[in-house]
């Protein structure tokens, strides 16, 4: 094999390794973002459940007031 071909292959391998490392970093960042979004989703779901419980309690009190003589 010609030295030029070997050098070209070595450069390509180096570029592929850099790209691989870049993709690993990107994957790590994306996984962290997914985790953050899942936590936010869970927090918002909990807030919705709390709001629903408060609304249900208010509606129940209104029903009781309407039923009272």
**Count of individual helical segments:** 1
Overall 3D shape: rod-shaped
Q: What is the end-to-end distance?
A: 101 Å
Could you describe the largest sheet, including whether it forms a barrel?
A: none
Strand pairing plus helix content: what structural class?
mainly alpha
C-alpha Rg, in Å?
30 Å
- Strand segment tally: 0
Proportion of beta-strand residues: under 5%
- Which residues form runs of ≥5 with pLDDT under 50? none
- Helix fraction? over 70%
Q: What is the ordering of alpha helices and beta strands?
A: H
**Mean pLDDT, as a whole number?**
95
What descriptors fit this protein?
94% helix; mainly alpha; single chain; 1 helix
């Amino acid at each position: 094999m010609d030295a030029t071909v070997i050098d070209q292959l070595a450069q390509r391998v180096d570029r592929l390794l850099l790209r691989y490392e870049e993709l690993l970093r990107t994957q790590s960042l994306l996984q962290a973002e997914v985790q953050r979004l899942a936590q936010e989703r869970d927090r918002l779901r909990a807030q919705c459940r709390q709001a629903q419980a408060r609304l249900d309690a208010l509606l129940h009190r209104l029903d009781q007031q309407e039923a009272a003589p």
